[in-house]
């Protein structure tokens, strides 16, 4: 029997758009698909940052089941990392990216 691993990223869907936009502070959203290898790697990187950056709201959304979120932030294909501060997107990264680049953005936004 397989054991389900709990993610350190809050799972969000289209119905939570208002909640994401009303959050004060920085929210980092990973939009990926279960079949996306780069998205799986990025999930691990972001989960590693959750204990260091406790004030950041780290979330994950499935690109295919959350099309409104993808459209709202103009993300055309997964994976993508969206940096949303006080309800406004301030940075978007698409495709594979290094942990160092993500951390640069976490400390500069």
Automatic annotation (TrEMBL):
Domain Thioredoxin: 19-106
Family annotation (SUPFAM superfamilies): Thioredoxin-like
Stored InterPro entries: Thioredoxin-like_sf, Thioredoxin_domain
Xref: CDD domains: TRX_family
One Pfam family per UniProt: Thioredoxin
Organism domain of life: Bacteria
Protein name: Thioredoxin family protein
